[in-house]
Amino acid sequence: MGTPPGTPSIVTYEDVVLGYGEGVVLSGVDLQIRAGSYLGIVGPNGSGKTTFLRSVLGFLRPISGRIRRPSGRRIRIGYVPQRQSLDPIFPLRVRDVAVMGLYREIGFMRRVQARHRRRVEEALEFVGMRELAEASYRDLSGGQQQRTLIARALASEPDLLVLDEPTNGMDLVGERNIMGLVDRLHAQGDRTVLMVSHRLHVVCRHVHDLALISEGKMVHGSMEEMFTSERLSALYGIPVRVGRLEGERVLFAESGGEVTGR
Amino acid sequence: MLDGLLFPFESMDRNILAMIMIAVMSAYLGVYIVCKRIVFVGVSLAEISALGIGFAFYATDWAVALGFEPHAWEEQAPLILSVLFTLVGVVLFSVHHSGKRVTQESLIGVGYAIAAGLAVLFIWQSAEGKEKLNHLVAGDVILTTEAQFIVLSITFVVLGVLHLLFSKEILFSALDKDSAQSFALPARLFDLFLYLSIGIAVAVSLRTGSILLVVGFMIVPPVTGLLLVNRFGHVQLVAIAVGVSACVLAAPATFYNPASGLWYDPPGGLPMSPTVVAVQAVFLVAAWIASRWSWTRRALLRGLGLTTGIAVVLCSVSLSHLLLGTQLVGESPLATALDRKFEQTEHDRTLDHLESMLHSSNRSERIEAIHLLVAWDDPHAADLLIKALQDEDPAVQGETITALGESKGSRAAWALETYLETRFPSADLVLQVAEALGQLGSPEAVHTLIHLLEESALPPFIRLQATKRLEALVGESYDLRDEHGWRDWWEENHKHLRWDDEKNRFFVHRSGQEKGR
């Protein structure tokens, strides 16, 4: 079930070419991130996912083409980086990390006020971290750290929640819990969620729309359109089978298949 | 009461205040440095800053050699170049290098090694190079000038206020630049500001303290703080407390002279920077132990609070002294000691300079040095004059002999007698020695002249001069042809010769009677 075509777009890519300096990483990107959509960006390592992510966050200007955002108001982006990007040596409490999502709103030279604290508490409550609000971020498990970062993004009440490899390095339980939380985030309040991952077997069970990045190109559509053996075999360069197991999407690489194109 | 509380720092002056300011700012910024894992960047920036200072010294010497008048900018040049070099270093280190053959870390290491090497070379080549190098590497804050203190104060106040105003944004940017940027904060700007703060703080601090002192403050107290507490702000407070406490505890050791057993005897005290770092190391070990037993942690934190409180009182007293120009408490032994050390350093510099003049290839310069040494009423000057007797040039020897006579030094007569015995000088120099010995009130002046008269090959005009000098010295007169007259007189009277300061000559003193009047 993809996002209905009539839904307004919050970010629109029109024939965008992305890269660094003269080097093109992605070209011909035409994509609409519609309000309330649940979009997964998937591709092998080094395919250009991070480059695309940086352009969504506004860190990277397109070499050519156009990235349009709604006029009149600024899109609030709640970015959840890979948890490894936060150095645990920084001595911070869970609450200290979460409140950072409100710094822009609090403003320069101003202190955190009670209403800001309330919002942080609500965000921590939503991700199930309120009990650990006073704990040191560095003492948390990987899943708890990821929840803290999600709470930080949530506290800013974002229009678009961007998650970068949210289950990276997690065990099965951690992965299931985090993805369950992301599902809830999307379902409650109909938030727009964009998730970047190289773990298609995880993403495929949750997102509604999928963009596949491979060899400098992006193709996208609803899960039904994109989650096919042909497309995925072409993406990974090996025979990939897809199917359903007890209603859940599954995929696996055929054993003994010949690697093509990569 | 206050005197007792503040002992031994009854009234600190700008030197100790400067050190405490460096401690506060370095420890505060050091928490960022340690948490961002850019310790090597901090150390390299310190060396690059030192390179700027060294280059300024070297360039100043060159400018002077080329005939430029240096006074207008010689004070400012080291600071300006140090800041400029450091800022270039900040820019170079903050630009991410993505090469596959050479890592960013190795480039920082290259920067460190080259900067350290060139800094030493530049400073070594400059005037008083060894002393400057010693100060820069392991020296202390003892020579903080008023101008340096003002620059340090203004810079740190401005940086401190900016950091207070933007503390949360700077922390977010330091922790997670991309996320901060995604939340619409100018994270790159804040990150650059942090690097610039580090660079400027290092550069300004190095004009007052040494590399060891600044780097020590930047690293050891933050690590101690990280071992003891779990919140960023608290770590910064503990780091500052450790830095300040290290100053307070190290300063007495710096002013205790184990050789003399006296306090406030700076030349014999421990060097300040290594002592401060050693005290910090004690705190670090204590923190490591305390991180394992919570009761020791509380005790250590209370101790830190106490020493920091004392430091705050000291700073208040000192600041009021500086601002109001009054001392709240009595005469300060520490201030006196610091003054003495300052004078001692100036004195050593003068001595080194005069000694280098004595070794000049230019005879006029050597003679000029001798005149300056005579004019300088100092015991060490006499030592140099005695050394100058070894000069190969008779003209210089002559000047030295005269100078020793005028110096009235206690060892001058001995030196002149030794000179006569070992150097076998010409007759005219012997006459000069006799003259000098006479000025020094040594009876050996008389004996030298008599000995000279006994020289058979002595030119007549020298013999005449010696005779006249003898007559003037003792008030006796013998025929020039009487070869034994003076010798007999000497044998009879030399044990009873005494010097008359008023008449500027000897007299024979025998139980109440005088001969030779």
Would you mind describing this structure in some detail?
The complex is a heterodimer of chains A (262) and B (517). Chain A has helices at 49-57, 94-99, 103-106, 114-126, 142-155, 172-187, 200-203, 223-226, 229-236, and strands spanning 9-20, 23-34, 38-42, 64-68, 77-80, 160-164, 192-197, 209-214, 217-222, 240-245, 248-253. Chain A is α/β, with parallel strands linked by helices and 262 residues long. In chain A, the strands form 3 sheets. Chain A has a 6-stranded mixed beta sheet with strand order 5-6-7-3-8-9, sandwiched between helices. A 3-stranded antiparallel beta sheet of chain A has the order 2-1-4, covered by helices on one side. In chain A, a hairpin with a 2-residue loop joins β8 (209-214) and β9. Chain A is globular, with a radius of gyration of 19 Å. Chain B is mainly alpha-helical and 517 residues long. Chain B has 2 domains: 2-243, ABC transporter involved in vitamin B12 uptake, BtuC (Orthogonal Bundle); 392-515, Serine Threonine Protein Phosphatase 5, Tetratricopeptide repeat (Alpha Horseshoe). A 3-stranded antiparallel beta sheet of chain B has the order 3-4-5. In chain B, a hairpin with a 2-residue loop joins β4 (505-510) and β5. At the A-B interface, α3 of A face α8, α9 and α12 of B.
